Amino acid sequence: MSPVYIFQFFILFIGVNSFTLLIYMIYYGQLFSSICCDTFEKQYDYIIVGSGTAGSVIAHRLATETNYTFIVLEAGGKGIPLFDIPVLGPLLHGSIYDWRFETVPQENACLAMNNKKCRLPQGKIIGGSSKLNNMIHVRGNTSQYVDWFQAKYGKDFIEQQFQFVEDNILHLNEIKYESEFASAIIEAAIELGYNTIDEFDKGFRKSKVSQNNGKRWSTSDKLDISKHVLTNAFVEKVNIKNNIAYSVNVLISDKKYKINARKGVILAAGTYNTPKILQLSGIGPRDVLEPLNIHIIQDLPVGLNLQDHIATGLDLILFDKTLAVNPMNMLNPFHIFEYFVNGRGPLTTPGCEAIGFLSTGGDDTPDLQFMVMPVGISADRGTHLKTSLGINQTIWDNYFAQSFDKHAATILPIVLHPKSKGKVYINRTGPKTPPCIDPNYLSNLDDVKTLIDGIKLVIKFANTSPMKALGAHVNSIHFPGCEEYLIFSDEYWECYVRHLTLTSYHPVGTCSMGHSASDSVVDTSFRVFGVERLFVADASVLPTLPSGNINAAIAMMASLFFETTIKSTGVGLTSSISLVCKKTDFLNDYVQRICLNEKVSR
Ligand SMILES: Cc1cc2nc3c(=O)[nH]c(=O)nc-3n(C[C@H](O)[C@H](O)[C@H](O)COP(=O)(O)OP(=O)(O)OC[C@H]3O[C@@H](n4cnc5c(N)ncnc54)[C@H](O)[C@@H]3O)c2cc1C
Ligand SMILES: *[C@@H]1O[C@H](CO)[C@@H](O)[C@H](O)[C@H]1NC(C)=O
Ligand SMILES: *[C@@H]1O[C@H](CO)[C@@H](O)[C@H](O)[C@H]1NC(C)=O
Ligand SMILES: *[C@@H]1O[C@H](CO)[C@@H](O)[C@H](O)[C@H]1NC(C)=O
Ligand SMILES: *[C@@H]1O[C@H](CO)[C@@H](O)[C@H](O)[C@H]1NC(C)=O
Q1: What region holds the Glucose-methanol-choline oxidoreductase N-terminal domain (predicted)?
Q2: pLDDT by residue (tens digit) across 315-327?
Q3: Ligand nearest to the CA of 117
Q4: Considering only the top CATH level, what class is 177-213+310-415+443-500?
Q5: Burial, 224: exposed, middle or buried (Cβ in 10 Å; 0-12, 13-18, 19+)?
Q6: Mutate which of 45, 67, 569, 585 for ligand 2 pocket (most atoms within 8 A of beta carbon)
């Protein structure tokens, strides 16, 4: 390595590691203060598990539009405003604010990663994954969502929910900073005959992001945290008796409690954790629960139907000149000043500066998305991104480290509607054991084909005049492991995508919404089939992937859940249980004990 790269490595290494140290100090500082000072009740109307994108929307609306009592139980910590500096987002990946999940070894994909496992970051912090994400806001194709709800709600009603969240809970702005790459890509798209778009359609646009004055903004940022959220509160399972969910077991700072829910338990723990909690509670496929001797309350396809937006193409486009966004630039004091004073400058970058929707089949329905980033992973010289993606060292040395003298940019082609499906399942009963996650990436050949078509489109972009003006060319180093194939042939690209398989972190579908318990977990009112007072409302209920980044659709869905299931009907009770257990609130504790034969503990 040349001395320049060693110097850059050294500076970045110090930067990354000081931040990691700071993260630990904040986390443990807040943990100890929560042990001494957090208080909570034995019983609430609603318990929300998880304060992520969905949980926070529901909590915000419960707090501002109803008089119900509720608590949000969040396994992660609070975090601090410094983490909301957009450019620092990736540094939370792999940190103590990440669940640090990974796939089981993949047969057909992730071959360039250590032990063939792709990393799957998920936020473990107030705000959930939206505190780790790229903040890109798109509604996607709203017509598609009508199908999720089996046409129970029209497109207008769904759009009203988007509007509500966008106007009342989120803050959105156009990107506040861009490299010359963003404009060049838009010009390249125009040269190739694409339109510029505002919302979902075939075409390209610069990113619209969930930020307030350049600072990361999540659905949790409107919540009164001290009043409604209990942090470091790890929910182990839901307690169900006579097919009625009535309480949760929760570890709060490692002590066990049972908290009761009078009207309902709402699971919003995300696509990997919600199915795990359900399975531990006895709701899941027989073949998963039986070997673990878990008493089966409902045999439902919990954990199946896992889908994710799969991508490829890191550092595929190289430039001879440097673009303005690079890690060294971020440490410039002027940019730090610009961020804190004006909410502008490179520190506001979401990473992805532009997006586009394309179709590989030639018709008008996009089946591919581009996410355009002015940096590659070699830019940090191997100090962070290599580890957070779990890239194999041999492959790093022989491929990515070879481009240190170039500037890399990334145009990720993403399969919008993948056909490969996987599953999430527990293989032990310990609540702290992570679930096994097998997304089965690229098990369907059509997904491979769409990605290869996507790479060909990326190359087409690299050959346009606006890109050529920046000195763009395609990385021509043979990808390690694919040497036997003629470079840039279809066989080569197949080998490449099976090695460099990337998730765009959009898992959905593990507690799918639908009309019957044979192939879904919740009905169109978000109720778990066969269990009263138990709801799931997070990314796991999405039966199919949206056409685009999914955060906005999840927030919409959570808002719709509140509007249709909590606000209008008030309860998820059946008449039978309200007859048996009808009582005034102050007697509820006592009667619940009698009715459900369960000790209320604190
Ligand atoms: C790195 C990354 C980048 C992304 N980029 C984008 C983007 O640019 N645009 C976009 O639209 N989407 C993006 N996404 C996707 C989007 O952010 C997520 O899909 C969305 O935040 C998921 O919302 P959720 O409410 O389902 O789950 P989450 O937001 O993950 O929330 C789940 C919450 O539940 C908590 N929890 C889990 N288990 C328990 C338990 N047992 N007890 C208590 N609490 C628990 C978790 O700690 C977490 O806070 C990205 C995601 C990631 C990870
Ligand atoms: C909440 O309670 C207050 C005071 O009792 C009442 O005025 C208000 O209408 C209630 N709001 C809702 C949404 O029920
Ligand atoms: C990394 O890749 C090399 C070469 O393909 C392989 O021999 C090695 O086992 C891999 N290491 C890991 C940890 O997967
Ligand atoms: C949006 O989805 C609907 C319903 O699935 C479909 O008919 C329509 O073609 C899609 N629109 C675009 C632009 O892809
Ligand atoms: C459970 O799965 C993990 C991998 O996800 C594996 O390492 C472990 O050995 C499995 N445990 C059992 C008891 O099968």
Answers
A1: 270-284
A2: 999 988 766 556 6
A3: 3
A4: alpha beta
A5: exposed
A6: 67
